[in-house]
Amino acid sequence: MRLTDRKFLTAWWALLFLIVMGCMIEGRNGEQETHDMIILALPLLSTWLCHRVKPQVAFYNLIVMIACYATVYLLVILNCSYRTGPKWWFVSATLMILTIIHSIALLIFSIISLIIHKIKRNKQETDR
Fold this sequence. Notes:
128 residues; elongated; mainly alpha; 4 helices
């Protein structure tokens, strides 16, 4: 499969749409909204930065994130029990923690890939 920017941008906008719709479904408000929006924007930033280094890795990670968010928001819609109690708190906290871990891992992968690419390029230039 040859990745084009159009496929990546379509998946990126789909993830953004899911995040916005999820925030509308959950009815976020107040101070918690800013904190949650920063955490939810982290996957968008990390995949965009990874796309600059490894486009296919970023695309596949976007697909995984879309599947994860879609599943969680579908559960939220189908099980709308006022989103209270320990079960809802556990699901919400798990999603946030997994989002942070996944995004940071993707950023670290992008940085390491960029460093390796630059080292190889410098080595090729010095060999000439």
